[in-house]
Fold:
Amino acid sequence: MEEFMRQFSVLTLIDAQMNHYSPAEGRVADYVLENPTTTLNLTTKQLAKQCQCSEATIIRFCQRVGINSFKELKIELAKDAHKVNTEQLPNLPVNFEDETDAVLEKVISKSMSALMNTSRLVSTSAIDAAAEAIHGAKRVFLYGAGGSSVVALDAQYKLLRIDISALFSLDSHVQMVMATNMTKDDVLFVVSTSGQTKEVVELMQIAKDKGAAVILLTQHGSSPASRLADILLTISVEEQHIRIGTMSARIAQLAIVDAMFIRLCIQKGNQVFERIIDTHNVIQKIKR
Structure:
């Protein structure tokens, strides 16, 4: 666990989210990235003066990166300052010259970083709200485009195991038809790494027009999809621009789905485990 915790770097997280800050927050991010050691010795008021912004902006900046206060930010900066470079796994893009052991090390490092950064950003109250919404829904509709469809399909499988009506289609047209038949008793669960995909936004709008609750699992930051969501589950910004299979994003998304599923099982009570055992036994019979 100690080795896992080392993978969290507040400086890495700040840098990864540069496209999502307001202009004032961006000045704070630039200053902290360029002067992490100096920042350790500043008060909120002094940092605000250096960045030509208000103290409230400093607090909003901290919250934007998943940290509650400036004091906590300085604690994380201090941890970064004391890390020895040889202790950190490489967090670099994969190169064509890489041997297999280097590729494996980089992929695992990136996945661990995504999980740690996401744990700081995702709202536990949002996970609870998502589980509660699904628990009370008549039907759950799931959708994900491209690589996100794998995560949506995993969520459907889990929900089916505990006898929740979960509908999923890879065809966006079929999904639109299903969305047209949604009611206020239904929930739409959407996975979209970017939150920019046109069909995702259109689907969410149809669901909202029908009165269905909309849950979105996406990267941290503002997007057309995040502005439509009733419940927002955020992962850290790990992959931008050209992505190779959204690898680290997918790992973080699956972890959030798992956490939500476990919370849902807890809400349903002991009887849910009987269903899990029943479905497990059926599958085992097929394997024999």
